[in-house]
Design a protein that fits this description.
It is a single chain. The protein is an alpha/beta fold. It contains 12 helices and 8 strands. The radius of gyration is 20 Å and the shape is globular. The model has no long low-confidence stretch (mean pLDDT 96). Bound molecules: sulfopyruvate (SPV) and magnesium ion. The site of magnesium ion has 5 residues, from helix 3.
Length: 285
């Protein structure tokens, strides 16, 4: 299912960020057909920085909850693979076991730092990173969609470097290329897309160039748009507001009309199914 979303050029696809079972279930209810298990959002929800502070096993445990709480395909943000080729293939094997549909690996060095923090991050050596991709491909084959993420533009290393890397990663067996940018317009991404000439499908993350309407991508060879961190940021803003208000008012009456009702909580996680199952399976004495 993820392969159909990411690797088909027929229609622009969208992946919505999830960082736990709840955000995954909400994205599914909103109509999204696939999810992005965001490293930034998962780290943040655990109270860590997006700098490989969470261990890979903590991370895959969260991914498992995201996978299990919906039947949607999940593309997992695998950062750089948590180390070298060996760590990357171990991660990929675990992600396959936990039901992920794909993994995106970025050409950063361990420990990584979120792309938007600081300037000119060092890139992994192109051959070494290609080895990480080949190791993952040899380990999980077609079971996981392998997305190679290029940090060359975001790190200030230029378009030629980005294109060179995209070809190397395609040669190494990637199924799609994720090209990241920190500019506030989509021009850089669109230049990449026209230079790349669709050798592999292109995935983008319009976090910084959010004002560009998606119609600008529909007429290009971009296959997939990732809304990478918006549920986490929405939750953060809402929780902060509610906490501040309850603290100031020493009461919850003010926030009550603006927060989810308990009935909404019970409906989202299908408590009624539990009651029906009890009637069927719980033997009364
Ligand atoms: C993530 O969601 O963790 C990403 C996208 O990798 S970004 O934070 O923009 O690097
Ligand atoms: Mg990330």
């Amino acid at each position: 299912m993820l392969r159909a979303l990411v690797c088909s050029n027929s229609e622009l696809s969208f992946l919505m960020e999830a960082h736990d079972g709840l955000s995954a279930a909400i994205a599914k209810r909103a109509g999204f057909k696939g999810l992005w298990a965001s490293g930034l959002s998962i780290a943040t929800s655990l109270g860590y920085r997006d700098a490989n502070e969470a261990s890979w096993s903590q991370f895959v445990d969260v991914v498992e909850r995201i996978v299990d709480s919906t039947a949607l395909p999940v593309l997992v943000d695998g950062d750089g693979g948590f180390g070298n080729f060996n760590n990357a293939r171990l991660l990929a094997r675990k992600l396959r076991q936990r039901g992920a549909a794909g993994v995106a690996l970025e050409d950063s060095c361990f420990p990584k730092m979120n792309s938007f923090v600081g300037e000119r991050h060092p890139l992994a050596d192109v051959n070494e990173f290609s080895g990480r991709l080949r190791a993952v491909k040899d380990t999980v084959g077609e079971d996981l969609v392998l997305v190679a993420r290029i940090e060359a533009l975001i790190g200030g290393h230029g378009m030629d470097e980005a294109i060179l890397r995209a070809h190397a990663y395609a040669d190494a067996g990637a199924d799609a290329i994720l090209i990241h940018s920190r500019t506030s317009s989509a021009d850089e991404i669109l230049s990449f897309v026209s230079a790349w000439q669709n050798r592999l499908p292109v995935v983008i993350v319009p976090t910084k160039y959010f004002r560009t309407p998606v119609s600008a991508y529909r007429d290009t060879d971009i296959s997939t748009v990732i809304w990478a961190n918006h549920s986490m940021r929405a939750a953060m803003a809402a929780m902060r507001q509610v906490c501040n208000e309850i603290m100031a008012e020493e009461g919850v009456a003010g926030v009550e009309p603006r927060i989810a009702t308990l009935d909404e909580v019970f409906a989202l996680l299908e408590y009624d199914e539990l009651a029906r199952s009890e009637a069927r399976y719980l033997v009364s004495r």
